[in-house]
């Protein structure tokens, strides 16, 4: 039977009530990585709104890996209880709580968007900034800090932080994990030939450039329960001549599948400032479709998916297993309810009893 936007999605031991997920979105609202009432209300209200999956924003595995000083983190055990409060609430609303584990690498230590008029401006030491690290010492842009090149021992330390963060994420009640290997952050900066000029076993050939991702995933997968989905967000193209390509992504997806990865979240870009990205309706969906069919792995499509019919079409035509929505979910936490009306399946999303009089 063909699937559609509101058919449940079962993967390993969990079932999403529909194919709609909230894409991870930084809220720049934490102090020392700790989730607070803002994160509870932000993520919680989107669970009330009917999405099947709620993925918490890029959450740093070490303090140095935060994009801004206000990013979420899961780099110490004290972070676990406030996350648990959020995952408990999400689950009670019938959604599955997910988390994106991240390290910003050379794009770390920047101001939150509304603290600086130009985004990506480095926070200096005197304003609470910190040293950033990467595969080499080329900065992402002239506004960013010059990264220090990681030694193999330091790479192993960061991988250990990903392992410990994975254990904490489980302890905090998350049932879906996403390794953030997109958008020019640490993992992406290793696999893209445009940001990795290393000459050791972490640079040069394709196999060497993907080593950081594969090794990290291997460590994390061991600690994450086999019966829960383990997923990876990739930037499927650098959108620049000589950069990472969709063909590379298909090859990497096949390797990730062998490591026990269950789904690829297909994003793109972020490693080169001002790359000519042809942004438009569903512009990244072809990445999802190709990876799903060529690497034979489940995928999520993301990027300018805004209408119920559009999302339903993506699922019905086998272009993705899930759709993730970012900005549209900021505009409307009740998007799943609205989409159910748009595709003439009004009963597909249960309205919370407290709100029934608003919807009937
Ligand atoms: C405010 C904001 C914060 C974001 N933060 C993250 C993030 O933490 N991790 C990530 O992988 N993508 C992040 N993104 C990208 C989104 O997850 C999504 O991939 C992108 O916005 C495209 O989807 P959309 O067109 O539905 O918004 C962010 C986007 C926005 C608008």
From TrEMBL:
Its cofactor is FMN. GO terms for molecular function: FMN binding; NADP binding; NADPH dehydrogenase activity. InterPro entries: Aldolase_TIM, OxRdtase_FMN_N, YqjM-like. It comes from Marinithermofilum abyssi. It comes from the Bacteria. PANTHER family: NADPH DEHYDROGENASE C23G7.10C-RELATED. Residues 5-344 form the NADH:flavin oxidoreductase/NADH oxidase N-terminal domain. This is Oxidoreductase. Gene3D superfamilies: Aldolase class I. The keyword Cell wall biogenesis/degradation does not apply. Keywords: Flavoprotein, FMN, NADP, Oxidoreductase. SUPFAM superfamilies: FMN-linked oxidoreductases (SSF51395).
């Amino acid at each position: 039977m063909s699937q559609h936007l509101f058919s449940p999605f079962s993967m390993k031991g969990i079932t999403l009530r529909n194919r709609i997920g909230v894409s991870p979105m930084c809220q720049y609202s934490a102090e020392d990585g700790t989730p607070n009432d803002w994160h509870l209300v932000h993520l919680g209200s989107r669970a009330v709104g009917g999405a099947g999956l709620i993925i918490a924003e890029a959450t740093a595995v070490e303090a140095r890996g935060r994009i801004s000083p206000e990013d979420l983190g899961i780099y110490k055990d004290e972070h676990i209880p406030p996350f648990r409060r959020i995952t408990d609430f999400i689950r009670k609303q019938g959604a599955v709580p997910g988390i994106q584990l991240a390290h910003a690498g050379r794009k770390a230590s920047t101001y939150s968007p509304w603290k600086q008029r130009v985004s990506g401006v480095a926070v200096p030491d005197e304003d609470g900034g910190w040293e950033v690290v990467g595969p080499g010492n080329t900065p992402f842009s002239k506004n960013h800090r010059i990264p220090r090149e990681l030694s193999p021992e330091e790479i192993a330390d960061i991988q250990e932080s990903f392992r410990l963060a994975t254990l904490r994420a489980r302890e905090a009640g998350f049932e879906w994990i996403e390794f953030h290997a997109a958008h020019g952050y640490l993992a992406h900066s290793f696999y893209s030939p445009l940001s990795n000029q290393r000459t050791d076993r972490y640079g040069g050939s394709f196999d060497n450039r993907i080593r950081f991702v594969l090794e990290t995933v291997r460590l994390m997968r061991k600690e994450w329960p086999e019966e829960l989905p383990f997923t990876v967000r990739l930037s499927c193209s650098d959108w620049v001549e000589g950069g990472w390509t969709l063909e590379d992504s298909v090859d990497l997806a096949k390797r990730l599948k062998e490591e026990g990865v269950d789904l690829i979240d297909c994003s793109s870009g972020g490693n080169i400032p001002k790359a000519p990205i042809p942004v438009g309706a569903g512009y990244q969906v072809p990445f999802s479709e190709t990876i799903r069919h060529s690497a034979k792995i489940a995928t999520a499509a993301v990027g300018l998916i805004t209408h119920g019919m559009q999302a339903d079409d993506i699922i019905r035509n086998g272009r993705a297993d899930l759709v993730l929505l970012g900005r549209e979910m900021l505009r409307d936490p009740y998007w799943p309810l609205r989409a159910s009306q748009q595709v003439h399946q009004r009963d597909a999303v249960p309205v919370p009893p407290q709100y029934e009089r608003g919807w009937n």
